[in-house]
Design a protein that fits this description.
Strand order of the largest sheet: 1-2
Distance between the termini: 10 Å
Shape: globular
Helix content: 40-55%
Number of domains: 1
Strand content: under 5%
Order of helices and strands: HEEHHHHH
Radius of gyration: 15 Å
Structural class: mainly alpha
Length: about 160
């Protein structure tokens, strides 16, 4: 049995295993500026759901976020979710690698995304899209998952 940890501890493990990830600052992607707070929320959801950063789990997380968050959220969240799906599907259609040396078929990408979206539909209550990360960092991960009914995929637990 794994011992319980706080979200902060899980997040530290996540960043230790991904040292090149942008942290504590905004990310400029072409002409789009992604605020640090949005990046941090995304990273937090990796830890809470237990989804890894491999493309299959990344697609599950993006689908999950589409359906698990409250409807009141920045319109850019919808654009990001569907935009990433379209971009990854496009690459899969042309047999391009996505993230790693793995080439995925479009139907696999869709299956990953839909699996995450289905999991997101089971979350009750919906997760506040504007949640202040400071309010949850020191909470126990097991309790957070129970509070929302989130099944843990296990990538970041000790």
């Amino acid at each position: 049995m794994t011992r319980s940890q706080t979200l902060r501890q899980g997040l530290e493990r996540y960043y230790t295993q991904n040292p090149d990830f942008v942290r504590d600052r905004d990310l400029q992607v072409g002409w789009i500026n992604v605020p640090w707070r949005d990046l941090q929320r995304h990273d937090i959801m990796h830890v809470v759901t237990g989804y890894s950063t491999a493309i299959d789990d990344e697609m599950r997380l993006i689908g999950f976020l589409l359906t698990a968050l409250t409807r009141r959220r920045p319109w850019t969240y919808y654009l990001q979710s569907l935009g990433v799906l379209v971009e990854v599907l496009w690459r899969a259609c042309w047999h391009q690698t996505i993230g790693s040396a793995t080439v995925y078929r479009p139907d696999e990408i869709l299956r990953f995304y839909i699996t995450g979206a289905r999991q997101g539909l089971t979350v009750r209550p919906a997760i506040d899209a504007y949640i202040d990360p400071k309010t949850v960092l020191d909470q126990d991960l097991d309790i957070l998952r129970q509070q929302y009914g989130i099944a843990n995929a296990g990538a970041w637990d000790v």
